[in-house]
Design goal:
It is a single chain. The chain has 195 residues and is an alpha+beta fold. It has three domains: 87 residues; 49 residues; 56 residues, Head domain of nucleotide exchange factor GrpE (Nucleotide Exchange Factor Grpe, Chain A, domain 2). Helices cover 67% and strands 15% of the residues. Helix 2 runs antiparallel to helix 3. The radius of gyration is 50 Å and the shape is rod-shaped. The protein starts with a helix and ends with a strand.
C-alpha cells in the first residue's frame, strides 16, 4: 500500500507540475497575445497618425496653391483695373478725333474765307456732329427751363420774384448747361429760380 500511495503521490505531483507548467505556458501565451495586441494597437495608432499627417500635408499644399492662385488673381485684376483707368477714355477720344480734324479745317478755311455766314454754318455743323458723338457715348444735355427746381439736377445761382403764381419754384433761365453721363449727373445746371 505504501507503494501505491507513493505512486499516487508521485502522479499527483506530476499532474500538479504538469498543471503548473500548462498554466505558466497559458499565462505566457496570454502575455504574448496581450503584447501582440498592444503592438497591434500601437501600430494602428502609428498608421492613423501617418494618415492624419499625410492629410494635413495635402490640405496645407492645397491651401498654399489656393493662396498663390488668389494672389495672382488679385494682381491680375489690379493690373486690368489700372489699364482700364489709364486707357478708359480711348474709345471716346477716338470718336472725337474726326471732329478735331473738322475744327482744324474750319479754322484754316475761316482765315481764307470772306463769307462769314459759310464759316458760321460750318462751325454749327461741327458742333452738331460733336454733340451727336457725345450723345452716343452716353452724354445727355439737361434742358431745365420751365421744370420744377430740383437740387439733384440744378444749382440755383439766383432767386428772382416769380412773374406768375404757377411759376413759383420753377427754373426761369439756365446760365450754364448741366449734363448727365449714363443717367448720372456730372455737372449740375446753374439756373435762375422763381421765388
Amino acid at each position: 500500500m505504501n507503494t501505491k500511495n507513493q505512486n499516487e503521490e508521485e502522479e499527483l505531483k506530476q499532474n500538479q507540475a504538469a498543471n503548473e507548467e500548462a498554466e505558466a505556458q497559458a499565462e505566457e501565451t496570454q502575455n504574448k497575445e496581450e503584447g501582440n495586441e498592444k503592438l497591434t494597437n500601437e501600430q494602428k495608432l502609428e498608421k492613423e497618425l501617418e494618415a492624419a499627417n499625410k492629410a494635413i500635408e495635402e490640405q496645407k499644399d492645397k491651401y498654399l496653391r489656393l493662396s498663390a492662385e488668389f494672389d495672382n488673381y488679385r494682381k491680375r485684376t489690379m493690373k486690368e483695373k489700372a489699364e482700364l483707368i489709364k486707357n478708359g477714355g480711348e474709345k471716346t477720344i477716338s470718336a472725337i478725333l474726326p471732329i478735331l480734324d473738322d475744327m482744324e479745317r474750319a479754322l484754316q478755311n475761316a482765315q481764307k474765307s470772306e463769307d462769314i455766314q459759310a464759316v458760321c454754318e460750318g462751325i454749327e455743323l461741327i458742333s452738331q456732329k460733336f454733340q451727336k458723338v457725345l450723345a452716343q457715348e452716353g452724354l445727355e444735355k439737361m434742358e431745365p427751363v420751365g421744370e420744377a427746381f430740383d437740387t439733384d439736377f440744378h444749382e440755383a445761382i439766383a432767386l428772382v420774384p416769380a412773374p406768375s403764381e404757377e411759376q413759383k419754384g420753377k427754373v426761369l433761365d439756365c446760365v450754364q448747361t448741366g449734363y448727365k453721363l449714363n443717367d448720372k449727373v456730372i455737372r449740375h445746371a446753374k439756373v435762375v429760380v422763381a421765388q
